[in-house]
Amino acid sequence: MNTRVGVVVMTGGHSKRMGQAKEQLLIGGETLLERMAKELAGFSEKYISVNAKQNYEITGYQTIVDEIPDIGPMGGIYSALKHCSCEALLVVACDMPYYRLEQAESIIKQWNGEDVCLLRTPSGIQPLASIYRKTCLPVLKQRMEQKQYRLRDIFHFVHVKETQDLSEKPYFNINTFSEYEHAANMDAETL
């Protein structure tokens, strides 16, 4: 695994459509957070991004609390980049039950040191399956000071390389109870 890139698993969303913390949903006897953490365990630097209301302990992972809670992924990415010692972080949402190490390795191979290596699938960009370099910190800080929390907006202010993955399934994320039921009912071997 590339030692220049660590990984941060994002939790802490409000889960308004789901009505409960998605990272704690069970699939195949494991929470979504545990599944993702196990899948990405090969990284040398591993973090879990949480807001102030959460506390998860996963062996080998360090928990990073959002410095500014409740502002969405921007706050988690900023706090993780500020805290990490590696050059960049692969930012991955915890609620993608089909995401595998193969996807992480693919985007890392395509990253050439840009500020952001932004993944695009046929359904659009995937900011929570992309690489962010520490060089993004000043822009993230400025946007937060301006109370501009939309993560996609930073792409206008940093050097972005887009990379493509034509598969959709690995980036499917659970937002509703019916999506969760569908994923939970899948054969564990196909996950």
Structure description:
Helix 2 crosses helix 4. The chain has one domain: Spore Coat Polysaccharide Biosynthesis Protein SpsA, Chain A, CATH 3.90.550. The protein has 191 residues and is of the alpha/beta class. The protein is built from five helices and nine strands, in the order E-E-E-H-E-E-H-E-H-E-E-H-E-H. The strands form two sheets. Strands 5-4-1-6-8-7-9 form a seven-stranded mixed β-sheet, sandwiched between helices. A two-stranded antiparallel sheet has the order 2-3. It is globular.
Task: Estimate the strand proportion.
Answer: 15-25%
Q: Which regions contain 5 or more consecutive residues with pLDDT less than 50?
A: none
In helices, the fraction of residues equals 10-25%
Derived from helix and strand composition plus strand pairing, the structural class reads alpha/beta
Q: Identify the CATH class.
A: Alpha Beta
CATH superfamily: Spore Coat Polysaccharide Biosynthesis Protein SpsA, Chain A
Shape: globular
The secondary-structure element order is: EEEHEEHEHEEHEH
Rg (CA only):
15 Å
Q: What is the averaged pLDDT score?
A: 90
Strand order of the largest sheet: 5-4-1-6-8-7-9
Note the gap between the termini. Answer: 23 Å
Count of individual beta strands: 9
Q: How many helices does DSSP assign?
A: 5
Number of separate domains: 1
Largest sheet, in brief, is: 7 strands, mixed
Which architecture does the CATH hierarchy give at level 2?
Answer: Alpha-Beta Complex
